[in-house]
Amino acid sequence: MSRVPGALWRNLLAIQVYGANTGVGKTVASTLLAKHFAQRPEKWKVSYTKPVSTGPEDEEDERYLRRYASGVAVSTLFKYDEAVSPHLAAARSRRSIPSDDKVIQALYSHLQEDARLFSEQSSKRGGFTMVETAGGVLSPGPSGTPQADLYRPLRLPVLLVGDHRLGGISSTISAVESLLLRGYDIDAVVCFDDKGKYENFGYLGPYFEKQQIPAFRLPWIPDVEGRPIEEERAMMREYYDRSCTHSEVARTAEELLNRRDKRLDNLNSMAHRTRKTIWHPFTQHKSIKNDEEILVFDSAYGDYFQAKHTSKSSTSKDTNEPVLHPAFDGSASWWTQGLGHGNPKLSLAAAYAAGRYGHVMFAGATHDPALTLAESLIEGVQNPRLTKVFYSDNGSTAVEVGIKMALRAACKRYGWDGSTEEIGVIGLKGSYHGDTIGAMDASEPCVYNKKVDWYRGRGYWFDFPSVKMREGKWIVEAPAGMEEQFGPAKQFGDLNEIFDFDVRGSSQQYKNYIRETLDRLVKTEGKKFGALMMEPLILGAGGMLFVDPLFQRTLVEIVRSYTFSPATPTSTPADPHSWTGLPILFDEVFTGLYRLGRFTAASFLRTQPDISVNAKLLTGGLLPLSVTLASDSIFAAFLGDEKADALLHGHSYTAHPIGCHVANTSLTALERLSKGETWAQYRSSWVPASSAGGEVDSALRNQDERFGAWSMWTKSTVTRLSHHRRVDSVIALGSVLAVALKDEEGAGYTSNAAIGLRDALLNDIGEDGMSIHSRVLGNVLYLMASMTTEPVHLTAVEKALLEKLNKASVA
Amino acid sequence: MSRVPGALWRNLLAIQVYGANTGVGKTVASTLLAKHFAQRPEKWKVSYTKPVSTGPEDEEDERYLRRYASGVAVSTLFKYDEAVSPHLAAARSRRSIPSDDKVIQALYSHLQEDARLFSEQSSKRGGFTMVETAGGVLSPGPSGTPQADLYRPLRLPVLLVGDHRLGGISSTISAVESLLLRGYDIDAVVCFDDKGKYENFGYLGPYFEKQQIPAFRLPWIPDVEGRPIEEERAMMREYYDRSCTHSEVARTAEELLNRRDKRLDNLNSMAHRTRKTIWHPFTQHKSIKNDEEILVFDSAYGDYFQAKHTSKSSTSKDTNEPVLHPAFDGSASWWTQGLGHGNPKLSLAAAYAAGRYGHVMFAGATHDPALTLAESLIEGVQNPRLTKVFYSDNGSTAVEVGIKMALRAACKRYGWDGSTEEIGVIGLKGSYHGDTIGAMDASEPCVYNKKVDWYRGRGYWFDFPSVKMREGKWIVEAPAGMEEQFGPAKQFGDLNEIFDFDVRGSSQQYKNYIRETLDRLVKTEGKKFGALMMEPLILGAGGMLFVDPLFQRTLVEIVRSYTFSPATPTSTPADPHSWTGLPILFDEVFTGLYRLGRFTAASFLRTQPDISVNAKLLTGGLLPLSVTLASDSIFAAFLGDEKADALLHGHSYTAHPIGCHVANTSLTALERLSKGETWAQYRSSWVPASSAGGEVDSALRNQDERFGAWSMWTKSTVTRLSHHRRVDSVIALGSVLAVALKDEEGAGYTSNAAIGLRDALLNDIGEDGMSIHSRVLGNVLYLMASMTTEPVHLTAVEKALLEKLNKASVA
Asked: Where is it chiefly localized (chains A, B) (predicted)?
């Protein structure tokens, strides 16, 4: 997908003309409007562009415009002789087929040039330009991509020419729906007045009015069938002369102008109105000093937001500069994105489930999307313990469900009364599981919960050694003050060696530390615990902390064999999939579903939790949905004769069909990606060639293991970053890159070390017109790609990151 | 919308033939398939139905079928002479225009008759029937409703005939998208082989394959243009004879059969697979003894689920009985439904936002759907205190946000340290605010939280007098044992008198009770409170308890003037919109957004909370989204120099554009409904004529007040129910009806009194083929309509309810 600004200018009204079908009069409508604008008293500059034209030269739309709308600057960007669909014409032309990116960039440059030219010629209201498509809205472009998908990055406002013929009501509404589901704004529908024959407009006008899409009836085209050429031309000239000032043409033009003005006004007022009305998440509003600090998103596509230039980001206030610019979505929209913004497959999946079900009540009921998703997840996690799926709405609620499950199972087995005894969880320092009180209580006291009045940390959180690359070397390092327990930093040849448990063996130091700590807590202090709860591998909100997988693995092993209730010593169960010690809960809300390159992060640990939580990437980055997977032995703890024994949890939209169906569509796409060329290319720099292959290996417990540990970020950039004098260390895994900057005032969430870099990435727009939106966690700036992001985009981001790091360090 | 079973039989494969446009060969494709099935060795019975035909008799599709596919039973249900779109033909016919319901019922009856006939004729595999539509997928039916909407209740599997002509790629894909967004399954796309001219199939085949929609290339139709009639017919006969056994026709037929078989197999296995994999919300799984207890939903539309018959519900195992039946969604899908299932406007709105944005990160950013929704809500609540909107994902999370807001504001003003001091909330007994721990802690101990190990009730919950109709009279009654505090039951002339605070004046008894209780808690026991938290008017999960509005109003008044911290006496603030006493939090998750007939339930109390929470109906019943609205004085409590002073809460999908845009679409529709004829009709039986009017009344603080209190359920039925000997009392307000049954073993969540009635409603399918799905809360059976439900459907539900109540009472 291209990186290109949205096609919106202050001094140029650019409109894309789509047809409900071929032969509906797109060129006639374009000619009428071109002529109309050229004749308006404001003295508009007018141009017309046909990005792709097919058919013999003498039938070109370009020529037609020249003939009937003199004074209009006309251009065709790509021409093919044969009068067939562009994809066929391009293929049959024996010339090289232009890529979608080439077409889009050529069109954008052409429009930008118009904006510049019109600005020089400085007409009062600027210019008007039309971009006429070929055939219908989804007729394929040269590469075969349907036009409405091909041109989507520009998201030009649409003038749709409806179909006045028999059957045209249906094709016109369908065309509108296809455009809407790709996120286009339809500024006007026009339809030629067929003088009462089929009266399509009589139906379509009111129909679209209800949808707040303005529709106009254009004057009927003369019937020139069979007339001699000169007579035909005279008739058409007379038609255009007469009709270009027709009231409906004028109303159409006014509507296009009004909508453009409203769009600009809206974009200009949004930041201010937002500050007035919106209470932002995770935001200290006192620190937002002016409207420019609010990012205004017009839309998004692929890896990019289409963001309004702010006074900070805009290098120029020239009216011929584009109003929008593409900003790389470097937080993957808060860790959710999997398949890119504005993905038409996900839109269609959402629409289908909405159309088939809307939402249907799920208690005691079932529907296909929820059942299929549950079965796919159970199959995908490759964990024989996990057999049941509980649905909720987001990571935080799914974690609370998991905690309720684990605590009940533990209390029931050990005969504890949770309503009077304090039952805690065991976790890691720096963990974070969500913002609802129950999820908060499962983390140690930290900045997030410091001022939450009902927060009560319930549990114990272990220190742990962490993985990072520093000065080109992968190391495992103890936190400050814990060198005695964990030993000095260990160095590894490459990332994959850290996961090679066969070579690393077991760590007696880790075992001793964990056992001694548990003994102190349980035996000496008499504390009770109901779960071991961890984000496997990377603690996200805690600052992208990469935990030594051997430590997490060891912790699970020991907890599973440890006796937490003296009355009930832990022994090997009859059912090998029963939980022992404590239920193990993995919070894979952030780390799961390919974020780190694999279906589960648990597979990196070669460990199988009893409860597993997924959210964020579950719907490919479209809408909230979460699942808590559990084992039979957890499930059994809730079986009883009383209703009160059950898990009495359930949100109204539990297993909403839209979310489930989108998730099914997304998981299928992600699975395909995991076997595809692009990921193989990413893997190749990280993984020894022998193990980068994708062949199924029956010896592996989890098939994702065959890919090793790898990242979408290039090894060379990660290495360069790790050598930078401003950088303390770097981590990269899957689509995640995190750079910990040196901070003399100490690391942590309150550090400002990374703010300057973040602002530079956002506000210093490069020559390529791109900015990068990123988020920081204290001294850590992280970047996260979508799972579909292509190397060319990441390379540009890596280049910008290295540049800004150097620049910012000079300042 | 019609109440009709989904068109699925075991012995009849019914297919709807749609065309990508008019003139694409629907009838030729139908003829080919009809002939194919008739000639198959299994000796299929074959029929063909044209529900609506336009054009002169000798051009009828029916005749065409008779001519070329002898042995096929052909029928046309509605005929018009003029060869134009059915809506025009019907209008011009000067005959009465059949309603959508009439067309649907006629078609369903006809298909059911085919199923019966074919069963009698007992062919091996049963019958095959085609229902051929007119024109394109969205060509209007006789009433003007687009066909794909008109026929949607039957949700017949679709055979789409693609467009082989120039432009046909676009119109075919668009037609598919229009069908999918209405929830149709497209079992096959066929396209005539144009022998290399435009090669549409060459594109469409692989395109649809990626979408898992099978596509087939049918043999080209002979060019009979200009041939004499006899020659034409001979050519066509030869074509059909030759082509009906063509391999692609056979593959199409196999695909249709396979898909039908898979659909039936899936429906048959779903309950069992669900029991294996799904952990249901609020469900004691031990009590589910067999697969039949799981409701299997094929789909839903309007007010109805299309549910699979279970052995309990099915009166017959005959293969000619429909597999599905419409079940009235009597819990409004867990209180969420506003605009009916499968509403194409909401589907399209969801798709548009998905196409324009996907999800975009919201921290420090803004986008149009979120901003527009926030502004609409602020305007809609007509509460000058509420100025800020915080987004989250569901009622429970939004309540937690509200609690964090209120507690912080109170602790900050009163100098309390919430991390060491216990700060509670004040609420009502029987309240319920959600399933996450923080929301749970805000309710008194009850069955829902009894076995939640981390639950700690934090606060005090008042008794309250409640409203109900008993034996035809509206009364306000004290709970058992509280008669001394609240006085004897009071009787009212009608429901609206209960809300007439001008007449009722203030209640000294209420004031005394509240003040004395607060004095005991605060002054004597030294307890600290941070919020008054209530569901206004109706406590939903607590058992549909209708609180005396005067009591809630009095409680708010007293809390606002009460001194909760002796160090900071409460006085009248300079800003009249500042909170005093305690922040007042209204949980309108269930009661708000027209569920009770008004935009807010607060307007019934003529009280303005400082914090208000909405969810459920917010998206019209499509997907999860919630908001917490707050006042400036609450917002100000989070302003500070440290990030930790901010409200550090925010889910990844905060303000997801799909939810916000769907909510905007839904609120617009609901507002229109509130001013429309149907609601006026509902109101008329409840509200004195003088006050039922909808004129804006400048004297009213809240414009919804002009409609009084009213219900979609008829006053006469409510009255009859209240007289029933098995009924203790009834409440009705807005779309909610709740019937409290007498239970000798006591009321409450664990009562089984209502189970029998619920099961009778679900399993005893009436002569009209309808069942009713309802939920019970202990001894209370409630029914809830969508806000679009029409009187005819509610009348049928009321009738069934009265009948089953009588029957079940005999048993």
From this structure: mitochondrion
